[in-house]
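Customer escalation, tier 2.

The customer says the design service returned an amino acid string that "doesn't look like it belongs to this structure." They asked us to rerun it and document both sides in this ticket. The original structure tokens are below, unchanged.
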């Protein structure tokens, strides 16, 4: 038996319990609380992913997704300052060089200054042109540095959101759609961070500055520029509602297409086997055309905004030119100043045109951020009542005490008043028809969900009183459908305990009989397993999963036996590995094979979420109850109660 000492409280425990508190308090204050929660997230580190658990729950998408993107920016104050500064310098030098050039032209055309007096201004002009180019390069650099850091933060938040809701939320979403949110939707926000949010600040400052200088020349053209600037700034608002709806539909369609592509790639073998490749291509074609329609609608509206912007800019410049020309004609403005006035007007419009250009993407940015926050603000599937692990080690004594559980309200209960225990070091086999509730018992013991009624306990402690991380320390699982990452055999085993030494991993591999086949792999333990372990057989994948559980060394083990048929050699190796991993552990065995069932100390028969029978194989096989019927079913009517 393996009594494990309780692990020290981790930062994630603390954060997860804080989440519980904030969950209850604040779902309506999502946007305002966001600022505070954002500030708790430290830069670029894994704890950042943990700290976001403090975010208030906001089921569904945020109502103000763009506003929710803004506070993230202030997590990098130095870069914010540098981005604004570089933007101001870039536009400032740009305006200065244009104004200086215009003044020089005016002087040259009117002959107001002698030629040799213009040498210094020409040198100054060249210097400002070079400075403007350098500042522009710097601005692009820092703005993108900021944007890509924020994208990385968002992706960590997203993964954290997914983890908090796993596995329930994942069951209801398509892989390609989620991958689309993590990659493409996050990428879309780059527009906002690199080209929109701080550019608005710079555009406003430059426009006000240029208009101010113009005002010094003469108030009339400055007034005209101000009116047209205000009109220009309102363009993105005119069709904002339409832009939102179109952006949302476009991102959704992209998500669906991504999901279809991933579905098709994952199911390629089946499509080829059943000759459905053409049907799939047809389906993909339809989705692509649907996406095309959405993109076209979005583009049409964006084109309308572009046309309105162009018309307003042309109108503004013409008005300024007409006003300035008439002021010159009336003698209210020197002729030499005319080019400078026009150039200043162009400079005032320049950055505003730039930001209205990026503002045309706001519909998509809003929709993308809505999809992101719909994940990050998911209410946690399971909320820890306490971050404190128990004071001493817990005995690996498992109890299901009158447990009732329903996955969703529209489904019948998966477990009803289910009561059984597994004593320390004992192996109990759960058997029952498909849908009887066996896997549900495993899910509840892992605390993937919390019970609706009754309690699940380990060592007398209600799992709801233990932090999830502590439960995961106490219980490990060897699932039926083992997921292997496309990493080496060694790394896949080490997933059980990242700090395990190579020696410990090899010892676990030896006990799980992984060494037998690892030696024959091209690069031994360094051989990549392939995506989902595609380079290995089902039995080999299971043995790696057993090695993972061994290296984790949890006192309670859930073993979900694979139903697939294995060849005799694999079967023998797997059974030996199972014997090794069960040794000294409290084991819940979801068994399908008679040989495995019989190897358990006790058998619990589940029927419709309740315990129907309980006893040893010999006791139960001798009755005329559910177990005997199950055996008859499995052995084709020949009930073998003798030795195998
Ligand atoms: N994620 C889920 N959401 C909704 N209902 C679920 C979910 N998982 C299982 N169920 C339902 O709960 C009931 C018990 O399912 P469970 O998977 O525990 O049965 P099982 O005995 O393990 O079956 P099997 O031997 O086929 O794996 C079934 O009616 C099933 O449809």
């Amino acid at each position: 038996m393996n009594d494990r000492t309780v692990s020290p409280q981790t930062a994630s425990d603390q954060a997860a319990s804080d989440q519980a508190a904030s969950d209850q308090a604040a779902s309506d204050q999502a946007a305002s609380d966001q600022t505070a929660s954002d500030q708790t997230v430290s830069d670029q580190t894994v704890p950042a992913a943990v700290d976001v658990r403090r975010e208030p729950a906001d089921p569904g998408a945020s109502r103000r997704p763009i506003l929710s993107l803004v506070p993230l920016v202030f997590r990098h104050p130095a870069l914010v300052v540098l981005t604004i500064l570089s933007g101001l310098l870039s536009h400032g030098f740009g305006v200065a060089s244009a104004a200086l050039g215009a003044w020089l032209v005016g002087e040259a055309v009117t002959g107001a200054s002698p030629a040799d007096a213009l040498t210094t201004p020409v040198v100054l002009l060249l210097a400002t042109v070079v400075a403007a180019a350098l500042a522009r390069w710097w601005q692009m650099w820092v703005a993108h540095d900021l944007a890509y850091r924020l994208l990385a933060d968002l992706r960590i938040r997203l993964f954290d959101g997914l983890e908090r809701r796993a596995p329930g939320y994942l069951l209801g979403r398509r892989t390609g759609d989620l991958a689309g949110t993590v990659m493409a939707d996050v990428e879309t926000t780059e527009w906002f961070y690199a080209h929109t949010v701080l550019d608005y600040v710079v555009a406003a400052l430059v426009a006000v500055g240029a208009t101010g200088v113009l005002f010094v020349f003469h108030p009339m053209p400055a007034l005209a520029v101000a009116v047209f600037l205000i009109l220009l700034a309102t363009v993105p608002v005119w069709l904002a509602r339409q832009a939102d709806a179109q952006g949302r539909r476009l991102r959704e369609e992209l998500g669906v297409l991504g999901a279809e592509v991933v579905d098709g790639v994952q199911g390629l073998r089946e499509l080829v086997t059943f000759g459905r490749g053409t049907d799939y291509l047809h389906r993909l074609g339809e989705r692509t055309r649907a996406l095309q329609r959405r993109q076209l609608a979005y583009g049409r509206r964006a084109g309308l905004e572009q046309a309105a912007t162009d018309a307003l800019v042309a109108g503004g410049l013409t008005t300024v030119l007409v006003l300035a020309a008439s002021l010159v004609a009336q003698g209210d403005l020197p002729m030499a100043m005319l080019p400078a006035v026009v150039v200043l007007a162009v400079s005032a419009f320049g950055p505003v045109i730039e930001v209205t250009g990026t503002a045309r993407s706001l519909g998509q940015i809003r929709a993308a951020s809505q999809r992101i926050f719909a994940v990050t603000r998911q209410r946690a599937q399971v909320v820890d009542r306490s971050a404190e692990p128990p004071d001493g080690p817990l005995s690996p004594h498992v109890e299901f005490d009158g447990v009732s559980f329903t996955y969703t309200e529209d489904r019948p209960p998966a477990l009803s008043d289910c009561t059984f225990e597994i004593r320390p070091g004992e192996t109990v086999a759960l058997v029952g028809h498909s849908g009887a509730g066996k896997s549900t018992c495993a899910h509840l013991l892992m605390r993937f969900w919390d019970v609706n009624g009754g309690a699940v306990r380990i060592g007398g402690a209600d799992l709801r009183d233990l932090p999830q991380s502590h439960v995961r320390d106490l219980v490990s699982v060897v699932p039926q459908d083992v997921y292997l990452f496309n990493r080496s055999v060694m790394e896949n085993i080490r997933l059980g305990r990242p700090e395990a030494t190579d020696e410990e991993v090899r010892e676990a591999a030896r006990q799980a009989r992984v060494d037998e086949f690892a030696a024959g792999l091209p690069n031994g333990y360094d051989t990549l397993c392939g995506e989902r372990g595609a380079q290995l057989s089902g039995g080999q994948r299971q043995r790696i999963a057993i090695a993972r559980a061994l290296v984790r060394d949890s006192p309670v083990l859930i073993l979900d036996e694979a139903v697939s048929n294995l060849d005799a050699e694999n079967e023998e190796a797997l059974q030996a590995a199972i014997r090794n991993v069960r040794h000294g552990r409290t084991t819940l065995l979801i068994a399908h094979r008679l040989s495995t069932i019989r190897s358990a100390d006790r058998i619990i028969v589940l029927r419709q979420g309740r315990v129907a029978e309980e006893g040893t194989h010999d006791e139960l096989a001798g009755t005329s109850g559910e177990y005997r019927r199950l055996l008859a079913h499995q052995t084709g009517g020949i009930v073998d109660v003798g030795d195998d």
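Tier 2 assessment: The sequence is consistent with the input. Confidence is low (pLDDT under 50) at residues 1-61, 637-644. Strands lie at 398-405, 415-422, 427-432, 453-458, 461-462, 475-478, 556-560, 586-590, 602-607, 610-615. Sent an explanation to the customer and offered a walkthrough call.
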